[in-house]
Amino acid sequence: MRYLLFVLLFGLFSCDEVPGTDVYIENEQNSSEIIISGTIDNGAGIEIYLEAPLLESKGTKVEVAKSVIGENGSFEIKTTVPGLGYYLLKLKSETNDSLELSLNKGEHLELNTSLEDFVSNPNYSGVSWAEDANAYQELILSQDEDKLSSFAAKRMKEDPANPFNIILSMHLMKKESDYNEARIQTFFEVASAFYMTYPGSEPANNFQNQTIFLRKYMENNAFYDVPEISLKTPDNKTLNLSDLKGKYVLVDFWASWCGPCRRENPNVVKLFKKYRKKNFTVYSVSLDQDGTKWKQAIKMDNLIWPNHVSDLKGWNSAVVPTFNIQGIPYTILVNPEGKIIGVNLRGRELEDKLEQIFKT
Questions:
Q1: What is the mean pLDDT of residues 286-294?
Q2: CA 66 to each of CA 31, 35, 62, 255, 332: distance values in angstroms, whole numbers, following the listed order
Q3: Which of 150-159, 183-192, 200-209, 218-227 is least confident?
Q4: Helix, strand, coil content of the chain in percent (nearest 5)
Q5: How many alpha carbons fall within 13 Å on the CB side of residue 153?
Q6: Which terminal residue of the chain has fewer beta carbons within 10 Å of its beta carbon, N or C?
Q7: pLDDT category of residue 59 using cuts at 50, 70 and 90
Q8: Where are the domains of the chain?
Q9: Rounded to whole angstroms, how far apart are CA atoms 87 and 99?
Q10: What is the pTM of this model?
Q11: Closest by Cα among 336, 270, 341, 259 to 302
Q12: Before 227, cis peptide (omega within 30)?
């Protein structure tokens, strides 16, 4: 399974920026009405309004609609929204209490609560995510982030397409220990479910964009075992990548005919010389087809490490689909346990990574 995930994930996206996690308003031309109604006991005369905090204009929160709670505590807000998105239902009172909502077109959300219990027990009904939202509010009041995070992980796993996952996702990975394979896999499942259920929506797009950061995180934090490579050396002996287990290994995909590869070689040589006595080596995989030119390039570029392999099949080499290689030079950094801790590092980025590893 881990090997399959490795193949699937490594070819999909690449990005150096951590995507934003707070753009949840679907941008569609065909808006549709929503209704929020119910009773808020002891709230007579207080203004209640729906806010789109992420549709900002010059730093000002956007009010979508508002109403005033009646003498009997009843209220009703009717408005149109551009689609599935993140909203706040707020009271213009001394405490300015607010509730987080994941509203979609055509929904009729109901509340049956009191002014005192507005946040702690809104008693939602009328929407598919009401039960989750009620439980969420209880946990918010407890201020126990660990319980809230566990609840988010459980419900997102059980119901990946639930609209309320827009809000739960903000609590799925709040601290470093939450970034584990199970929770990241849950996030991927939610992203996939939103992509299928709400195609083209901003929440679906945003979930997809956030997977870019998570894939990058996994690539650089030892989540995957490196697939085996078993190819011939220049003197026709088999050398397995696994033979080097116990060392930090830079798997360097290159070829004699590749100009950028040849220009990068002096940097790889410099780093090999600097760290070879600190349990570091290089495993060079050539995409050459001409054995003579391959051997000449090794000598000419002074690639002094002994680990050189190739099947001399060029782009038809078995390593190309295994590692989803789109171009060379291409590198994979492997730790002594045989797990990937860096992908496509070279130049200054590779130097910094190795310096970080060997700084002690």
A1: 98
A2: 18, 11, 11, 66, 55
A3: 218-227
A4: 35, 25, 35
A5: 17
A6: C
A7: low
A8: 2-23+142-219, 32-127, 230-358
A9: 8
A10: 0.65
A11: 270
A12: no
DSSP three-state, residue 231: strand
Cβ atoms < 10 Å from Cβ of 259: 8
How sure is the predictor about 64, in pLDDT bands with cuts at 50, 70 and 90?
Answer: confident
32-127 under CATH 2.60.40.1120, yes or no = yes
The contacts of residue 8 (CB under 8 Å, 6+ apart) are: none
Find, among 30, 38, 106, 33, the residue nearest to 64 by Cα: 33
Task: Evaluate if residue 113 carries a pLDDT over 80.
Answer: yes
**Selection from 146, 170, 145, 142 nearest residue 156 by Cα:** 170
CA distance 192 to 329: 31
230-358: what CATH class?
A: alpha beta
Q: Are 76 and 34 in contact (CB under 8 A)?
A: no
In the predicted model, what is the mean pLDDT of residues 353-357?
A: 94
Buried b (16+ CB within 10 A) or exposed e, 123-159: bbeebebbebbeebbebbeeeeeeebbebbbebbbeb
Spatial CA neighbour of 226 closest among 11, 15, 10, 14: 10
Helix-helix angle 145-158:130-142, to 10 degrees: 160
Task: Decide: helix, strand or coil at residue 113.
Answer: strand
Q: Hey, how many other C-beta atoms are within 10 angstroms of the C-beta on 299?
A: 10
Share of the chain above pLDDT 90, in %: 70
Asked whether 49 and 90 are in contact (CB, 8 A), the reply is yes
Assess contact for 130 and 99: CB atoms under 8 A.
no
- Which residues have a Cβ under 8 Å from the Cβ of 340 and sit 6 or more positions away? 6, 219, 222, 223, 224, 225, 226, 332, 333, 334
Q: Tell me how many helices (H) and strands (E) the chain has.
A: 10, 14
Give the CA distances from residue 105 to residues 80, 85, 122, in Å, rounded to whole numbers and listed in that order: 8, 9, 21
Residue 356 tokens, joined: 């970080």
pLDDT at 352 over 80: yes
- Using DSSP's 3-state secondary structure scheme, residue 213 falls into helix
pLDDT bucket at 87, cuts 50 / 70 / 90 = very high
